[in-house]
Amino acid sequence: MAAPAIVPILKKVATYVLTDKKLLKTVLGIVLGIIIIILMPLIAIFTIGSGHIQVDTDYIQSNIIANLTPEDTAKLQKIEDDMNSIQTKMTEAGYDETKVKRAQVLYTLALYDYSDRDNFIDDLVGCFAEIQTNEELISAINLKFGTNISYTEFEQVISKIEAESADTSSQSSSE
């Protein structure tokens, strides 16, 4: 049901990303960062755990890192630092892991270009409230950063992330 509604949105996003060079570089940097930081260790764990394939992850990671430009390395480091700072500030403000993930999703999908602003992370954290709907959160973000984030699109992304997170946690608890 939800897939047909998402297809036009994905086409629109893909067209926008592919036609904007700066945004394309940013998205590629984020994807590369995800591959290096998250997927490679997971692949290593699964392949080593299965015993079927031996992968030299250190060799693969060193090759990937060796092929990164200094600019790519700096971008990946900034993304990692920002994600850690968001988690720290949100936790210090008393927010639970759900709100931390929402802040990180907003940063990754919509606010990366604003991350060079003074007090960016404080401004992002300031958009959250203890009792708040997603619609109120998106309104606060749009007002603070001058963005035009769609509540509906944000809700779809968050729902998908939470569903996948629930699936992952239920699988690990049943093992």
Can you describe what's shown?
The protein has 175 residues and is mainly α. It folds into 2 domains: 7-68, no CATH class; 70-175, no CATH class. It has 8 helices and no strands. It has helices spanning 2-19, 21-50, 57-66, 70-92, 97-111, 120-126, 134-145, 151-174. The longest helix is centred in the N-terminal third of the chain and has 30 residues, at 21-50. The radius of gyration is 18 Å and the shape is globular. The mean pLDDT is 80.
Question: How would you sum up this structure in a few lines?
Answer:
With 175 residues, the chain is mostly helical.
The count of DSSP E runs of length 2 or more, i.e. the number of strands, is 0
Number of helices: 8
Structural class: mainly alpha
> What is the residue-mean pLDDT, rounded to a whole number?
80
Low-confidence stretches: none
The geometry reads as globular
| Rg calc | 18 Å
Oligomer: single chain
User: Helix amount, in percent?
Assistant: over 70%
Please summarize the sheet with the most strands. Answer: none
How far is the first residue's CA from the last residue's CA? 30 Å
Order of helices and strands: HHHHHHHH
What's the domain count? Answer: 2
* Share of β-strand residues: under 5%
